[in-house]
């Protein structure tokens, strides 16, 4: 999810907005296995200590396992058809926690909207779901620096007959527009003057592709990554070039990272140190590449920038 969710810093309630809304990018492979692992995530982690900056990292080293909150979203964090934890965020977490002296990670599946509440109530140690970083979420949790950035793209019919390349085109040409449940693209379209009540909301990018192929809509908006992946086997649809939506008159680029409880700055800071090493060595791209990420999704953005300060 990955971000899917994607999160504009202003308004309506969906995955990239101020309230952690429902899942943005859920596919059947991730969702089907949630029940099998749900029981494993029922117990709670130990409560936080009074140590300045938190002692969670020390406790995780002693336990030998870190619990990851995931939302069943391909390619961000999900359970595969073999019942194994995977996705860009869990695979990255495996590497970083290993370097921090924590041998294993364990998934705690939940709905996207329950990730921040679940983190706050200590059901897991970190959110590893490709969560977009925005100012409103930064009031509730602390984030690592983003491990990826993301632009938007459209799924359109082959040849892009209406010439739809951005949200302004969608509004001007009165295209029938769709996006996913909880997607930030809802707000982006509304920002450009599209009536929210006229937007067709579908569960995910697969349903969006089906809507375009069947002619129910002219365009489906999603992340550049998820849209380009889902159209690969389509004979009726294609994906447009990636673009940055305009927010408050400026191009806006989203970035996703890991979320921690506000008092666990020691863990977040140690995590960031290892993340930066992976960025500098190029290993980060190697870890994320199997999930469709490219050099274009690598970023030097910081959590501070995305949090609005």
Helix and strand layout, with pairings?
Blueprint: H1 28-32, H2 34-38, H3 56-63, E1 65-70, E2 78-79, E3 85-86, H4 88-99, E4 104-109, H5 115-120, E5 126-132, E6 142-143, E7 148-150, E8 152-157, H6 167-172, E9 177-180, H7 185-191, E10 200-202, H8 205-214, E11 219-223, H9 224-230, E12 237-239, E13 246-247, E14 250-251, E15 254-260, H10 265-281, H11 283-288, H12 303-306
Parallel strand pairs: 1-4, 1-5, 9-10, 9-11
Antiparallel strand pairs: 2-3, 5-15, 6-15, 7-15, 8-11, 8-12, 13-14
Explain what the structure shows:
Residues 65-295 form the Solute-binding protein family 3/N-terminal domain. GO terms for molecular function: ectoine binding. InterPro entries: Ectoine_EhuB (IPR014337), Solute-binding_3/MltF_N (IPR001638), TAT_signal (IPR006311). By secondary structure, the protein is α/β, with parallel strands linked by helices. The protein has helices at residues 28-32, 34-38, 56-63, 88-99, 115-120, 167-172, 185-191, 205-214, 224-230, 265-281, 283-288, 303-306; strands at residues 65-70, 78-79, 85-86, 104-109, 126-132, 142-143, 148-150, 152-157, 177-180, 200-202, 219-223, 237-239, 246-247, 250-251, 254-260. Strands 1, 4, 5, 6, 7 and 15 form a six-stranded mixed sheet that branches. The protein has a five-stranded mixed sheet with strand order 10-9-11-8-12. A two-stranded antiparallel sheet has the order 2-3. The longest helix has 17 residues, at 265-281.
